Amino acid sequence: MSLLAPRNPDRRLLDDGRATRAMRWIMAIMLFLTVLAAALGLATWAATRALDSDLAGRVTVQIVEGDAGARDRSVAAIVRALRGRAGVRAVAEVDRARLAQLLEPWLGEAGLDADLPMPAMIDVDLTDPGAAPGIERLVRGLAPQARVDAHAQWLAPVRGFIATLALLAGGLVLLVASATTFVVLLAARSGLDTHRDTIEVLHMLGSTDVQVARLFQRRIAIDTLLGGAIGTLLALVFLVFLGSQIDRLGAEIVGGVTLRPGDWAILALLPLGFTLMATIAARVTVLAALGRRL
């Protein structure tokens, strides 16, 4: 008989089957939305950092010159001047065959005639993005017809948009967390009203407000953890599916919006964070309500 009897009967004292199921599904939905929003924020923030580190410190020098000899001399002079310069990590001329491959979709094979003058391009990787203006002055002094493009300049709108998405996702996480807190407050107050007679009996038997609050916070913690685990699992499965679809696109900018192992760990721990938040909110609410009744 002792094996069949519940070891802690007080854990079931304030249970309400229908309300408990509703609370769990609400928490599942909340955590599903939170994990998706958090994943968007983490991925876009990582993409922003990748743009800053990989592209913001890169400059492309373009030399358009009809005379092939003058063009090659300008390229050689610029490469010699930039190599070893402070703030420059690497200098490399873009392969002409690679340029031809990039132009082929636009000009076609017929447009890539051997007599067609092709611009020369030099990729410059910087250790300090602030060195770009000095490099531009140097290049213009050696080849006035040269054009210097800082990747950070033309990628600034893309970077700003991705950063805005990251901030928006963070705001959504805070919004859903606030909504979850309000749901817990309503559930705790509703439980107090529903079990008012039971709570009065517990008080007459010598139970303190803290002991009664533990009953509520334990119930809400269990519902939040179980529902949150379900919602998080569904969200993670959806993210894996979405990641496989992004990989098929093959686009570099979109492909940069990915989650690192640490990001997956943060998403998996979200149910624990929400459970702690819900437990604290339930305890504070119940103790405050019981204190006002005395």
Detailed description of the structure:
With 294 residues, the chain is α+β, with helices and mostly antiparallel strands. 72% of the residues lie in helices and 8% in strands. The protein contains 9 helices and 4 strands, in the order H-E-H-E-H-E-H-E-H-H-H-H-H. A 4-stranded antiparallel sheet has the order 2-3-1-4. The two termini are 40 Å apart.
List SSEs in N-to-C order.
Answer: HEHEHEHEHHHHH
Number of domains: 2
Oligomer: single chain
Stretches where pLDDT is under 50 for at least 5 consecutive residues are 1-7
Helix count equals 9
Can I get a quick summary?
This protein has 294 residues and is an alpha+beta fold. 72% of the residues lie in helices and 8% in strands. The protein has two domains: 9-52 and 156-293, no CATH class; 65-144, 2-Layer Sandwich (Alpha-Beta Plaits).
Which key phrases capture this entry?
single chain, 294 residues, alpha+beta, 72% helix, disordered N terminus, FtsX, Permease
Outline the fold blueprint:
Layout: H1 17-54, E1 58-63, H2 68-82, E2 88-93, H3 96-111, E3 120-126, H4 132-142, E4 147-150, H5 151-194, H6 196-204, H7 209-249, H8 252-255, H9 261-293
Antiparallel strand pairs: 1-3, 1-4, 2-3
Helix pairs in contact: 1-5, 1-7, 1-9, 2-4, 5-9, 7-9
Membrane topology: Multi-pass membrane protein
InterPro entries: ABC3_permease_C, FtsX
Organism: Sphingomonas qomolangmaensis
